[in-house]
Write a structure and sequence with these properties.
The protein folds into 2 domains: about 20-100, Alpha-Beta Complex (Ribosomal Protein L22, Chain A); about 115-224, 4'-phosphopantetheinyl transferase domain (Ribosomal Protein L22, Chain A). Helices cover about 30% and strands about 25% of the residues. It has helices at about 30-40, 45-50, 55-75, 140-150, 155-175, 220; strands at about 20-25, 85, 90-95, 100-105, 110-115, 120-125, 195, 200-205, 210-220. Helix 1 (about 30-40) packs across helix 3 and helix 2 (about 45-50) runs antiparallel to helix 3 (about 55-75). GO terms for molecular function: holo-[acyl-carrier-protein] synthase activity; magnesium ion binding. Belongs to the P-Pant transferase superfamily. Gsp/Sfp/HetI/AcpT family.
């Protein structure tokens, strides 16, 4: 999906299912906030953040620090003491049994999710303008393409962007990310919550102009 415009100030903490914590993150912060965020990251996290342009560096530092802060609240430790690493695909891995984490960024808005005794994936995107070219981008299943074309033109931007965020949330939760074909993960176009490929999905409340999706499955369900 396309890049985003600057975000308004994030809304208050959104609701989440039992056992899941979600938080919005202001990724436009700088100065002291950026320095405080960088202070809780480990050398590998800082090295990865520095590989981007200054704006990308800022977003990576603030998002990772926010994820550490959310996990720290769950564990009762300082953010810098959270055993947080990344697998080869870049997915966050928490060195505590039964605890999972995910994060996403779009422009100046970030979302982090922490799951206890469940797997989680989260994705946020700015609502993208609709053009018919979206149907040919290769990430929609045939049923989704047909459902989008049946919607009124004014409803298509939000519906298409939500379909994307639901797919990405599920693929992140699975641990495959976009290495898997997103068209094989079929959403129910127009629904803010439901079941997608065996994962429970729902909207995360975000400011107008964005859409965010959370995918959740209990640990025992992911082992079936």
């Amino acid at each position: 999906m396309p890049p985003t415009a600057p975000a308004p100030a994030p809304a208050a903490g959104p609701a989440a299912p039992p056992g899941v914590l979600t938080r919005l993150v202001d990724l436009a912060a700088g100065g002291d906030a950026l320095a405080r965020a960088a202070a809780v990251l480990d050398p590998a996290e800082l090295a990865r953040a520095r590989r981007g342009r200054p704006a990308v560096h800022r977003r990576r530092v603030l998002l990772r620090a926010a994820l550490r802060a959310a996990l720290a609240d769950e564990l009762g430790v300082a953010p810098g003491a959270v055993p947080l690493h990344a697998d080869p695909s870049g997915r966050p891995r928490v060195g505590v049994p039964g605890l999972d984490a995910s994060c996403s960024a779009s422009g100046a808005l970030g979302v982090v999710a922490v799951g206890r005794r469940c797997r989680v994936g989260v994705d946020v995107q700015a609502v993208a303008p609709w053009t018919d070219d979206v149907l040919d981008e290769g990430w929609l299943a045939r049923a989704e393409q047909e459902a989008l074309t049946r919607l009124p033109a004014g409803a298509r931007p939000l519906a298409a962007t939500r379909a994307w965020t639901q797919k990405e949330a599920v693929l992140k939760a699975r641990g495959t990310g976009l290495r898997a074909d997103p068209s094989a993960t079929v959403t129910v176009v127009g629904r803010a919550e439901g079941v997608v490929a065996g994962w429970t999905v729902r909207d995360v409340p975000v400011p107008d102009g964005w859409v965010a999706s959370l995918a959740v499955a209990r640990d025992e369900e992911t082992r079936r």
